[in-house]
């Protein structure tokens, strides 16, 4: 953007993810002094970007809108393949353990509402508190794929990968539903499950209030 606009241009993204995590939808904002010919600028911008990044649209927003802080909620998906699938390498986590689907559903329901999620956060993180409101947490099956969807008003560092790792412990019978609740209330990361690999995780959607958009 700085090259195209011939002026230093800083961008602010809606959030950060771990290396290896995918984004189906991501936003950033930038303050631009001159009026953009948006369709032309979109083509130019994509010509600069590598093949694995694409800008889909450019919209005008109110001056005080922030891609990071104005977001109302974010939705992540985690994809698990239950069979060895070469086409899912780098796109889903291969879990070879048998999983009890009803247990996965029951554990996901426990996550709903506002909780302290310190047990699922990376230890070294610069946040004022660990409380998040989970609005959706659910599993669905698509063929041999298991897909976990979670929506919340905010997420902690490593939170989704740690939650999924712990849910898989419940699904495999290693951890009971009662123990899962105790892990949440105990706020101790060492008691929760492993961080599942990043390649199965997707930032799926970021939601903003409609009034910030000027077009």
Describe the overall structure:
- With 215 residues, the chain is an alpha+beta fold.
- The protein folds into two domains: 2-68, Pseudouridine synthase I, catalytic domain, N-terminal subdomain (Alpha-Beta Plaits); 73-205, Pseudouridine synthase I, catalytic domain, C-terminal subdomain (Alpha-Beta Plaits).
- It is 22% helix and 22% strand.
- The protein has helices at residues 2-5, 38-48, 101-110, 159-171, 177-186, and strands at residues 12-13, 22-23, 28-29, 73-81, 93-94, 113-116, 131-142, 145-152, 201-207.
- The strands form two sheets. Strands 2, 4, 5, 6, 7, 8 and 9 form a seven-stranded mixed β-sheet that branches. It has a two-stranded antiparallel sheet with strand order 1-3.
- Helix 3 (101-110) crosses helix 4 (159-171).
What is the helix/strand order?
HEEEHEEHEEEHHE
Unreliable spans: none
Work out the strand percent: 15-25%
User: Mean of the pLDDT scores?
Assistant: 95
Q: Looking at this structure, what is the CATH superfamily of the largest domain?
A: Pseudouridine synthase I, catalytic domain, C-terminal subdomain
Annotated CATH architecture of the largest domain: 2-Layer Sandwich
- What is the rounded Rg? 19 Å
Count the domains. Answer: 2
What is the overall silhouette?
Answer: globular
CATH topology-level name of the largest domain = Alpha-Beta Plaits
**How many beta strands in the DSSP annotation?**
9
Structural class estimated from helices and strands: alpha+beta
Helical content stands at: 10-25%
Major sheet details: 7 strands, mixed
- The number of helical segments is 5
